[in-house]
Amino acid sequence: MSASEESRAEWLDKSFWERLDLIETRHQRIQCEHEAVRRGLERVPTAESAELRQAWQRYCEVIAELDHTTAELEALRTRSA
């Protein structure tokens, strides 16, 4: 949900908007990946513990990346406010 060219604050430089667009795109991609991984985790039969551990590890990695991009977005928003 990037700001349109017309509504972007002129006092913020172009590199800020480019970085924001990249982070927002990455954040949205990771959110989608998070949902897919979560659904995959729910489908793993409990008897298959190795697959469950692997799915859980991937889930944790995606959550960590999601947390990181969320923090980057908040840092940009805080600096621009």
The helix-and-strand class reads mainly alpha
Radius of gyration: 17 Å
Number of helices: 2
Largest sheet: none
How do the helices and strands line up, and which of them pair or pack?
Layout (H helix, E strand, L loop, with lengths): L13 H30 L5 H32 L1
How would you describe the overall organization of this protein?
- Helix 1 packs antiparallel against helix 2.
- This protein has one domain (about 15-80).
- The two termini are about 15 Å apart.
- By secondary structure, the chain is mostly helical.
- The mean pLDDT is about 80.
- It has helices spanning about 15-45, 50-80.
List keywords for this structure.
single chain; 81 residues; mainly alpha; 77% helix
Question: Can I get a quick summary?
Answer:
This protein is an all-alpha fold and 81 residues long.
